[in-house]
Amino acid sequence: MSEKVIRIATRQSPLALWQADYVRKSLESHHPDLQVKLVPITTRGDTLLHTPLAKIGGKGLFVKELEQALLENCADIAVHSIKDVPIHFPAGLGLVVICQRGDPHDAFVSKNYKHLKQLPPGSIVGTSSLRRQCQIRKKYPHLIVRDLRGNVGTRLNKLDQGAYQAIILAVAGLQRLDLQSRIQHVMSPEESLPAAGQGAIGIECRLEDDVTRQLLAPLNHFPTERRICAERALNIRLEGGCQVPIGSYAELEGDNLRLRAFVSTPDGSQMIYGERCGLAIQAEKIGLDLATELIAEGADKILSAIYQEPPR
Question: Locate the Porphobilinogen deaminase N-terminal domain: which residues (predicted)?
Answer without folding.
Answer: 6-212
